[in-house]
Amino acid sequence: MTNSPRPLIAGNWKMNGLGASLAEATALAQALAAEPAAARVALCPPATLIERMSRQLAGSAVEIGGQDCRAEASGAFTGDVSAEMLADAGARLVILGHSERRAGYGETDALVSAKVEAALRAGLEPIVCVGETLAEREAGQAVAVVAAQVAGSLPTAVAGKPFSVAYEPVWCIGSGCIPTIEQIEEVHVAVRAALVARLGEAGKGAAILYGGSVKPANAADIMKVREVGGALVGGASLKAADFLPIVRAV
Question: 72: buried, middle or exposed (CB in 10 Å: 19+, 13-18, 0-12)?
């Protein structure tokens, strides 16, 4: 585990979830009320559910986050959502720089850094994603790629603010495959070094989450890895019965 005071287990619902899905969020909150978790727990639903979920789970142990935000606070950006809008809807965190955004929308480190600045401006806690492709790993570039993403995606303004970095090997997301424990540790240790190089003392305490086919069956082993301070969970976060064992694995 990392030296972060409390691990974070965050669920990324991606483009999944309608109003009926709020029942799963309620079931999660009720389970945590009955038996509190050692970790912080967050759900990041689609933007259409943020306000309803935040109202429904108000006062619970579940924090609400967004999945992306625009760097600008407002303007003529049809279809986009600003950090201020997320905060207004009840979000307290926001995922930024996810590989699906980097690959599908051409998001650069510089753009991700600008979005992190926006999140801080709105009082949101950023979860900044980094990770290598299969080609990059096979070329022996995984550590170098991830360290460069950390350096380029984190503005120095995050120093002293709550934030986390999520390492997600792109080749594992949704594939069911997972790196070895040694591979996870190697990259998490490298991320920590990159954080300290970028932010100094402030880089020592931020949680480094692992993401990439996290399941109830493998969560406990992953959480024991050096410098793993939580998880960013995709499909397994959609159902309380799947997500709870991961939360309890800390």
Answer: middle
Is 176 among the domain residues? yes
Answer yes or no: is 3 within a domain. no
* Cα–Cα distance measured from residue 33 to residue 71, given in angstroms and rounded to the nearest whole number: 35
Name the nearest CA neighbour of 43 among 26, 67, 65, 68: 65
CA atoms within 13 A on the CB side of 248: 14
Residue 234 falls inside a structural domain: yes
Structural domains counted in the chain? 1
> The domain that contains 117 carries what CATH number?
3.20.20.70
Q: Any idea which residues carry the catalytic annotation?
A: 98, 168
Distance, CA of 209 to CA of 164 (rounded, Å): 7
Q: Quick check: pTM over 0.90?
A: yes
Distance, first Cα to last Cα, the chain: 9
What is the full per-residue pLDDT of the chain (250 aa) written as tens digits? 444 569 999 999 999 999 999 999 999 999 999 999 999 999 999 999 999 999 999 999 999 999 999 999 999 999 999 999 999 999 999 999 999 999 999 999 999 999 999 999 999 999 999 999 999 999 999 999 999 999 999 999 999 999 999 999 998 877 777 899 999 999 999 999 999 999 999 999 999 999 988 999 999 999 999 999 999 999 999 999 999 999 999 9
